[in-house]
Amino acid sequence: MAVKFSGGKNIAMKVPPNQYDQTVGFYRDTLGLEEIGGPSGEAVGFKFGANNLWIDKVTAMSQAEIWLEIVTDDTDKAAKALDVAGVARRDEIEDLGESFDGFWISSPASIIHLVDAKAGSWE
Description:
By secondary structure, the chain is an alpha+beta fold. The protein has a single domain, classed as 2,3-Dihydroxybiphenyl 1,2-Dioxygenase, domain 1 (Roll). Helix content is 20%, strand content 39%. It has 2 helices and 8 strands, in the order βαββββαβββ. A hairpin with a 2-residue loop joins β3 (43-48) and β4 (51-57). The relative contact order is 0.23.
């Protein structure tokens, strides 16, 4: 059986500290998007249509990046299929913890994707 992938509902915007407050203000105050998660450490979430937009303050960033979520029914099979396809694993970029059922990859255009189990998809 082939591995099934689909787009997840989460989009992460990784923002350098000097742009964080203005970026959060843009989505909260200028656009008036509904906040779904108050500041939790250095992150805030907004309803973004059918998706969730998470804005994370990341000190190591020099410019903003968009990270996307891909969900699958079987992360082990997905990892093997992606490896065979030559897709770069990027687990070093952010620790997901031992109990998280997922991993990081990079597209050919260097867009980071979180590949995780549908049932474990973060809110």
